[in-house]
Amino acid sequence: MTGFGRSAGALSQRYFVAVTTKSVNHRFLEVSVRMPEFFWELEPAVRAIAAETFSRGKLDISIRVQRTQQPEYNVRINTQIANVVVPQLRSMSEELGLGSTFAGSDLMRVPDLLQVEPIETEITDEERDALARLVREALAQMIAMRTREGESLHADITARLKTIRDLQQRLGAYRDEIRSELLSAYQQRVQEIGAQAGVQVPEERIAQEVVLMVERGDIAEELTRLTHHIQQLQQAIDGREAAGKKLDFLSQEMLREINTMGSKSRSATIRTLVVELKTEVERIREQVQNVE
């Protein structure tokens, strides 16, 4: 499911932070965190908060930090560079008759001679707690957006389940009629084969074979399992727990039963209903990819 959230606030007198979060569809939970290098120690905590809140989706969490108080700096002269460069500059200066005196501005032009690094102090517990609060606020906004999308998905899937139930009932109504058609067709076919082979097949034997063939072509078991899957799917979307993976599995099982019914039947009516059923279940399966 897609969503976006944002929060901002001061962690302390030293830092002001802006947190942005966004999510897109994904079968599993994948969290990407971007933050400054001096905040890297907080990345595991941010990932843990995301894992507590979500079970599926690709989440991007961006944390931008602005310093509101200048840190102390460590100034260091790279003596290795100075020991190599300065004598060479003196030698060149004497050869060119420029003298051997250097101004500070001349030495500052030497790359990497002067190294200035901020002294990063440890992040305090208060700053950790403040960042966690901001991350949760941004995720809460994203959850609200995902909830609105979930309500739309719930309405769509519920409507499609109603259509599937109607189609299933129509299949059940045709079942007895199709069994009678199959019985008549198989009896005629067995008699034709016997006549072509010049064999007189006993009526009892014909009846036994025809009954077995009709039973193999009956769709009663598939209809029963399809009913069970529909009930489970309805319960899953009405529940409050994460059900995306379960819905995906149930939609696959529904397609399996529908395909079996289609392969068993020679009736054009049933094949037409099977195609309509598959269309509705495929649409549900596409939608449940967006469900956590």
List keywords for this structure.
6 strands; 292 residues; 3 domains; 15% strand; alpha+beta
**What average pLDDT do the residues reach?**
80
What sequence of helices (H) and strands (E) makes up the elements?
Answer: EEEHEEHHEHHHHH
Estimate the strand proportion.
Answer: 15-25%
- Name the shape in a single word: elongated
- Low-pLDDT regions: none
Number of strands: 6
Count of helix runs? 8
So what's the oligomer here? single chain
Estimate nothing, just give the exact number of structural domains.
3
How helical, in percent, are the residues? 55-70%
Q: The biggest beta sheet, please? A: 4 strands, mixed
- In what order do the strands lie side by side in the largest sheet? 1-2-4-3
Based on CA atoms alone, the radius of gyration comes out at 37 Å
> Which structural class should the secondary elements be placed in?
alpha+beta
Termini separation: 7 Å
Summarize the structure in words.
There is one protein chain. By secondary structure, the chain is of the alpha+beta class. The protein folds into three domains: 68 residues, no CATH class; 46 residues, no CATH class; 143 residues. The chain is built from eight helices and six strands; from the N terminus they run βββαββααβααααα. A four-stranded mixed beta sheet has the order 1-2-4-3, covered by helices on one side. A hairpin with a 4-residue loop joins strand 1 and strand 2. The longest helix is centred in the middle third of the chain and has 73 residues. The mean pLDDT is 80.
